[in-house]
């Protein structure tokens, strides 16, 4: 019996909301609030006949703390699910603290304006000290730990697939398969084809910023940074087949390095086709991925935001995308003094997702874990106060919920390793 405020109504939120409505005994009432209320109303009207969850909607600009506070005060939720954009993480966390409500999200904070001098000074110091240059990192949200602890509240960070389920896989491996973990390789494969020469599977701005940034990995206690897309491997993925994959920086490496300190190396790989990479390189070369505003015919525009307006809406890819995703983690380490390897992963079919919730697998594999993370908090399975990432909690009930609600795990005790 709980009341949940969900902020955001895009590709990922839409799946999470569908899934919450499949568990009405826990999600008794939800309020869908976003910048564009019409999208919330449309989804609410579609779901209302299919669920006993009571759905209301609201307009909110979550860039403004006072608007979020006013909404929380009027709705009185037990939990706020932030499924808007990483830009809103801090304002929504501030509002949750002000109102005494638990918080969760699916991606760590990054600023919308990376030219902001105040942010830039802190960022440049962090680049030098930590040794990686991604725009996003956990320091901003970890800085809220004491405040959440003192308020007796929980903030669950990054309950999507990666970050999210991949960290639960690490916690599961640590709990059940290994005494010590030596290496972790996170492999994110999208074998889906939407038929466009170029489109992104989730918010283009967030996606292209992530992919065009330098890659990095954790090795022997420090970051190693490499030029974007400069480490390539091939891997034969179960139910997808042979794919090229590239080493990227990814946010969960940062928290895993902290929470599984014995790991000597942690890497993240994502598959990309040649057409995607060619387009991305060209767009980058001509300045279309820039976040710095330019003046065009007397109007200020941000190139990457203009590009977003031209690209297909990720939510529209659902009916066109065929094929499967395969995302998981390969571990090496020791159990009872013996060397061992282990691979845990999920395979998800784009068309099956579309049939069930009207979205492709990228939104599905993020939206289902968002609902399952909320389920853990609302049913008292995860109660630690403070600000925490997924691997800090018991993985068993979370993975059981994922098995049940659409993302079942597969495993192998003799996987091919990535060199
Ligand atoms: P979309 O762009 O499809 O949706 C974003 C939603 O947030 C839209 O409804 C948008 O409203 C709303 N929004 C944006 N700004 C504001 C604001 N200031 N106030 C209120 N609402 C706002 O994004 P996705 O659904 O693809 O991604 C959602 C989140 O999931 C992102 O944080 C993304 O990084 C994360 N993600 C995480 C993954 C993981 O595995 N962990 C994988 C994929 C995504 P409007 O309609 O007005 O634009």
Sequence-ordered SSE layout with sheet pairings:
Blueprint: E1 2-7, H1 11-21, E2 27-34, H2 37-47, E3 54-59, H3 65-75, E4 79-82, H4 89-99, E5 102-105, H5 117-130, H6 139-142, H7 145-150, E6 154-157, H8 165-177, E7 180-190, H9 204-212, E8 215-219, E9 222-226, E10 232-237, E11 241-247, H10 251-259, E12 265-271, H11 274-285, E13 294-296, E14 299-301, H12 303-310, E15 324-335, E16 338-349, H13 350-357, H14 361-378, E17 386-389, H15 395-404, E18 410-412
Helix pairs in contact: 1-14, 3-4, 8-15, 14-15
Bound molecules: NADPH dihydro-nicotinamide-adenine-dinucleotide phosphate.
Choose one word for the global shape.
globular
Rounded to an integer in angstroms, the radius of gyration calculated over CA atoms is: 20 Å
For the record, give the distance between the C-alpha atoms at the N and C termini, rounded to a whole number: 49 Å
Mean pLDDT: 96
Taking the sheet with the most strands, its summary is: 9 strands, mixed
CATH superfamily of the largest domain: Dihydrodipicolinate Reductase, domain 2
Q: What is the percentage of strand-forming residues?
A: 25-35%
> In the residues, how many domains can be counted?
2
CATH architecture of the largest domain: 2-Layer Sandwich
Helix segment count?
Answer: 15
* CATH top level label of the largest domain: Alpha Beta
Question: Which ligands, by name, code or SMILES, are bound?
Answer: NADPH dihydro-nicotinamide-adenine-dinucleotide phosphate
Helical content, roughly? 25-40%
Total number of β-strand segments? 18
Structural class estimated from helices and strands: alpha/beta
Q: Can you tell me the residue ranges where pLDDT is under 50 for at least 5 consecutive residues? A: none
CATH topology of the largest domain: Dihydrodipicolinate Reductase, domain 2
